[in-house]
Amino acid sequence: MKKLTLPLLIVVFGILLSGCNPNTMMSQTLDPRLPKVKDVKAVAGNSYVGFEWQPLYMKGIEGINIYRTEANAYVHSPDKQLHKIATVKNPFASHYVDTGLKQNSHYTYTFRTIKGAYESPNGKIIEIKTLPALPAVTFFQGAQKANNVIKLIWRPHPDQRIKGYYVEKSINGTKWKRVGSLDHRMMVEFIDNYVVKGNTYQYRIIAIGFDGSFSKPSLPVTISAR
Predict the structure, then answer these.
(1) What is the pLDDT of residues 89-146, one digit of tens each?
(2) DSSP readout, 126-184?
């Protein structure tokens, strides 16, 4: 019987390892000889996680594949799936920021080095949680100023990371609907010109961060239109 060549052995080995964890999605052929990424630092924000690692260009690595679970899919969960979210193609790069994440949520990451059509086994497994929602706007008030006009005012959010606000409205207990968007932290008034006598209106304010994060909703203001 002829001996298997080394590339074929690597392919077979990769298939066997993948079969041990069928939920892990591989995008390249596994090469267990490639170095792993073991030294990774991670810092979480409200809607992002930033990473820093030691480059491995001295070992002939061409880049790094970054894998992640969906929000709150724990590393020990039987239905966990790792999805490739990015490829860092520069071997000298040492930073990456994963954005658009859910607030107050758990994520699991791993890094795999790449060279040609091959990638390493999982490197360091990183479990991290994004920060919770920012505190709500305070001192929120409203009053009817005319037959069809309600004016809302509130105190500016103290966090400098806030860029503006969303205004949400509910009519007679219906679902909350966004009716306004303000693009500056110091713009703290909203005038609703669509008020009908006899309806009960509720309003709430949500502060929005520069990074896409958001605050908890304010306590609602309730006004019965007269």
Answers:
(1) 999 999 999 999 999 999 999 999 999 999 999 999 999 999 999 999 999 999 999 9
(2) EEEEPPPPBPPP-S-EEEEEETTEEEEE-PPPS-TTEEEEEEEEEETT---EEEEEE-S
| CA-derived radius of gyration, the chain | 26
Determine the topology of domain 141-224 in CATH.
Answer: Immunoglobulin-like (2.60.40)
Q: What is the pTM of this model?
A: 0.72
User: Does 6-129 match 141-224 in CATH topology?
Assistant: yes
What CATH homologous superfamily does 6-129 map to? Answer: Immunoglobulins (2.60.40.10)
Residues in Cβ contact with 9 at an 8 Å cutoff, skipping those fewer than 6 apart: none
